[in-house]
Amino acid sequence: MNKRHATTAEAVAGISDGATVMIGGFGGSGAPIELIHALIDAGPKNLTVVNNNAGNGHVGLAAMIEHGMVAKLICSFPKSKDPKAFTERYLDGRIELELVPQGTLAERIRAGGAGIPAFYTPTAYGTELGEKKPTAEFDGKPYVQERWLKADFALIKAELGDPYGNLTYRLAARNFNPLMATAAAVTIAQVSHLVEAGGIDPEAVVTPGIFVNRLVEVSDPQQEEILNQAEARYP
């Protein structure tokens, strides 16, 4: 089954108001900027977004927030280099925040992809983040129960992809992308290089094509940090 789409607009079609969307990346590393901007052009509202941070400047996730598309953000680092778009909306009550420790966020996403409804971790026990959550004791140590995270869609960025959706990643861009690919009902990947079937060594595949529904080639992807250095805005 050929999962290739001709344009980023075509790839993100069908993401509707109220959807939960996971967006890969660790800051700018592995962030699917072109897919995010295509989603801004499509204009769905009241989205719940799962991401490591809250965006920077006026591009990518920050631009989504700035355009009023995000009703709730689930993330680990809402305060990064230039989170003005998020901060302003959070302080005046226009966006909801669910703060999750980074390791817990990764494990909640992994659990969603693995079909594990809940797990226990010592992280956040005795803090505000652990309040009102079930707890249990194991070997004399207290743990907090955390629930899986799943999404309607995941937007991810990969290095190599083939028509069947098999993916590899470039260095640190691997971060949250493979986890999110498994935890969404529909995974949409932008790839820097689309190769023919058989063009990726099976031993090198990180995300098997079974987890990918759509992919689009973006041969010269933009980098969030470079865009912000140039004081870029989207659109």
Please describe the topology of this protein.
Layout: H1 8-11, E1 20-23, H2 33-42, E2 47-50, H3 60-66, E3 70-75, H4 84-91, E4 96-99, H5 102-114, E5 118-121, E6 135-138, E7 141-147, E8 151-161, E9 167-168, H6 177-183, E10 184-194, E11 214-217, H7 224-229
Parallel strand pairs: 1-2, 1-8, 2-3, 3-4, 8-10, 10-11
Antiparallel strand pairs: 5-7, 6-7, 8-9
Assess the beta-strand content as a share of residues.
25-35%
Helix count from the secondary structure assignment: 7
Tell me how many strands there are. Answer: 11
Largest sheet: 8 strands, mixed
Average pLDDT, all residues: 96
Q: Approximately how much helix is present in the residues? A: 10-25%
Uncertain residue segments:
none
Decide which structural class fits the backbone. alpha/beta
CATH architecture assignment: 3-Layer(aba) Sandwich
**Full CATH superfamily name:** Glutaconate Coenzyme A-transferase
CATH topology: Glutaconate Coenzyme A-transferase
In total, the number of domains comes to 1
End-to-end gap: 34 Å
Radius of gyration: 18 Å
User: What's the CATH first level?
Assistant: Alpha Beta
- Please trace the helix and strand order, writing H or E for each element: HEHEHEHEHEEEEEHEEH
- Overall shape: globular
Quick overview:
Belongs to the 3-oxoacid CoA-transferase subunit A family. This protein is of the alpha/beta class.
Task: Provide structural commentary.
- This protein is an alpha/beta fold and 235 residues long.
- The chain has one domain: Glutaconate Coenzyme A-transferase (3-Layer(aba) Sandwich).
- Helix content is 23%, strand content 26%.
- The chain is built from 7 helices and 11 strands.
- It is globular and about 55 Å long.
- The model has no long low-confidence stretch (mean pLDDT 96).
